[in-house]
Amino acid sequence: MKKGLGKKFWTAMLIFGLMGQIAWVVENMYFNVFIYKMFNAGAADISAMVMASAVVAALTTIIMGAVSDKVGRRKAFMSVGYIIWGLTIISFAYIRSIMLTIVMDCVMTFFGSTANDAAYNAWLTDRGDDSNRGRIEGFNSMMPLVSILVVFGGFIGFDLDKQGSWTAIYYIIGIATAVIGVIGWFIIEDAPDLQRSSQPIAQVLAYSFRPSTVKANKKLYAILAAFAVFGISIQVFMPYLIIYYEKTLRMPNYVLIMAPAIIVAAVVTALYGRVYDSKGFEKSIVPSLAMLMLGYVLLFFFRSTVPVFAGSLLMMSGYLTGMSVFGARIRDLIPENRSGQFQGVRIIGQVFVPGLIGPYIGAAVLRNAETIINSDGTESFLPNANIWLASMIVAVVLCAVLVVINREKKA
0.90 cut: is pTM over it? Predict the structure, then answer.
């Protein structure tokens, strides 16, 4: 059992986890709104941006995670990475086209994935063990919901139909991200037992993709496959979530509806890590999927405020607790002293595969969606409730995958 992690660890985890998720929320939920409102982007444009970012995130995490193992340091990659990440976010204040947004999104993703997906996640794995993994992952998995709440609350004072509002947003988020990077240099502590790899970099990069490694870690790769299906279900609807609330449901006050749901879901997620620590993966993943799927059902069938609130609460709770459970299980199964090398295959399951397949399904479902004419005469599409039906179908597939994994385990 490890000694107490200390105040510096929890402080660094709080500010890096929260700021990193705030930056990702702006990218994952509001870049789509940005190009939708500023450039009248269609579903295909949004899908292309999400997929391009997913490819860059996966390649970056594979390479930079292995590099951080090779040099035996996480702190430098986290701190410097956040500083440059912040500067790239500021650059979006000057972008005026869909194509340039997609290109710069890929550039930003490189630095964000280096700092957060590769270094930060490897650092969390280094510092935890089987006595505190669920608590760490529960706290860490709460960050996306808290960040959504922060972003929703912060954006409520901006008119997102105006370019000036986006300029201010990018400056605020970019500067805050860079400042966190500077602070991190003084409070981040690498794990005391972290050692640099003596293997050539090519071997370090290839390790997690070798057939022998897969064979020796069957449980890990099986859970990663299930995690990918989970992520696909989320990415079917996530790129269109804000547009769906605001435009399709005609809820311009969606922030006031979502905020209470997010607060409750954040508390549930923070406490849920203890369920994993005491009950294990199999017994903790079932309630998460039940909440997620029930949320899908309510959001598919209802349009009024109360059931939409209930559906959003269940969907968000299932999403984040599911992320927590899958994340904790993956960290438990990663071999010691190789956490950086396995961040690449983790990001393939968490981001790459879902980022390619999920938005593609979403765009296919919305191919013949209703359109509206904007005040300037341009045309925009309206996401419909079929995104929830498609997400539910993928979730059912996930249940079947988990049943197969459980049978293989017993066999």
Answer: no
